[in-house]
Amino acid sequence: MRLWSLHPRYLDRQGLTACWREALLAQAVLAGATRGYTRHPQLERFRSCAEPLTAVGGYLDGVATEASARGYRFDRSRIREAGGAGDRIPVTDGQLRLEWLHLMAKLEVRTPDLARHWAHEPEPEPHPSFMTVPGPVADWERSAPDLSR
């Protein structure tokens, strides 16, 4: 499961649809509607919110908004609790850098034109549900490669 902290505009078609599906799975886990993935580390940031289902609903809404902008129709009725413009979840700049490198590597293989398009992005923006704060890669991240390169 990869719930990107990056703004969904950076994702290719495959990444955007996978993000939608995985966020729906995260929503099901947080709602207690499935027994799988209950200990997935990426869910920690949603669980830390006062209202986890609303937080993941806001995340899903951000993905659906990007999909709509591209002419895709993601079924918003699947969002259990629509997230408002409430508190945004902190994400460290170190985590964003790690995810950016991870995404760029995927795009170079899957969608090279898009990788070239974003190659000179000075600093990627977070998903609208997140706000960037200084700090290292998140503790919940499974692999934290050396980003000093």
TrEMBL record:
Residues 139-149 have a biased composition (Basic and acidic residues). Residues 119-149 are annotated as: Disordered. InterPro entries: Pyr-dimer_DNA_glycosylase (IPR004260). This is Pyrimidine dimer DNA glycosylase. Pfam families: Pyr_excise. It comes from the Bacteria.
